Amino acid sequence: MRDRHRTFLAVCFAGALVIATAGVATAITTISGSGTSWSPTRVSVSAGSSVKWTATSGNHRIKSWGGNWTWSRSLDAGTSRRHDFPSSGTFKFVCTIHGSVAGGVCSGMCGKVVVT
Questions:
Q1: For 52, what's the count of Cα atoms within 13 Å in the CB-facing half-sphere?
Q2: pLDDT digits (tens, 9 = 90+) for 16-56
Q3: Cα 38 from chain centroid?
Q4: pLDDT value at residue 42
Q5: How far apart are CA 55 and CA 59, in angstroms?
Q6: Considering the chain, what percentage of its residues have pLDDT values greater than 90?
Q7: CB 60 within 8 A of CB 34
Q8: pLDDT for res 3
Q9: pLDDT tens-digit readout, 78-89
Q10: Torsions phi, psi for 8 (to 5 deg)
Q11: Predicted local distance difference test score (pLDDT) of residue 1
């Protein structure tokens, strides 16, 4: 009987935890692409946060670089793309239309997300 009581309490606790966290929103930071630049070019977010890239003008192709993540998205003017960052690190990105990476150096439309 005691084991069933413990199991019942464990199931109730787990269900309450799921219900309590279901409405929690992820923090979202926005980076805007306009012309040939990002604004801001560097953002700092907490692990578990999301970053949203928005093309306020022009078309952009976002691509990760630097070796610690793989991500690539196209943005037409007026559209957005979002990426979740579950763990810490520095994540660099470039618009391959308005920037380039050569010899480990990014020039043009480059940026980074620092996750702590």
A1: 10
A2: 433 344 444 478 999 999 999 999 999 999 999 999 999 99
A3: 15
A4: 98
A5: 7
A6: 74
A7: no
A8: 60
A9: 999 999 999 999
A10: -60, -45
A11: 58
Report DSSP letters for 55-106, one per residue. Answer: ESSS-EEEEEESSS---EEEE-TT-EEEEEE-S-EEEEEEEEEEEEEETTEE
Query: Quick check: 76 pLDDT over 80?
Result: yes
Helix (H, G, I), strand (E, B) or coil at 19: helix
81 CB burial (10 A radius; 0-12, 13-18, 19+): middle
What residue type is assigned to position 90 of the chain?
Answer: T
- Residue with token string 């998205």: 73
Return d(Cα 111, Cα 74) in angstroms, integer: 16
Distance CA 74, CA 8 (A): 49
> What long-range pairs does 90-94 form, CB within 8 A, spacing at least 24?
90/66, 90/114, 90/115, 91/64, 91/66, 91/115, 92/64, 92/65, 92/66, 93/62, 93/63, 93/64, 93/65, 94/62, 94/63, 94/65
Classified as helix, coil or strand, 44 is strand
